[in-house]
Amino acid sequence: MNIPTTFDKRPTIELVRAFGERRAVETEALNQAPASDHELLDSYSETVSGVVEKVGPTVVNIRTHHIDRASRNGSESGGAGSGFVIAPDGFILTNSHVVQGAARLEVTLADGHQYDASLVGEDPETDLAVIRIHVSQLVHAHLGDSKAIRVGQIAVAIGSPFGFHQTVTAGVISALGRSMRSRSGRLIDNVIQTDAALNPGNSGGPLVNSRGEIIGVNTAIILPAQGICFAIASSTAEFVAGWLIKEGRIRRSWIGVAGQTVPIHRRVVRFHRLEMDHGVLVAGIEPGSPASRAGLREGDVIVAFEGEPVSGIDELHRHLVAKLIGIPSCITVIRYAEKLDLVVTPLELVQNNHRN
Question: Does 203 participate in catalysis according to the annotation?
Answer without folding.
Answer: yes
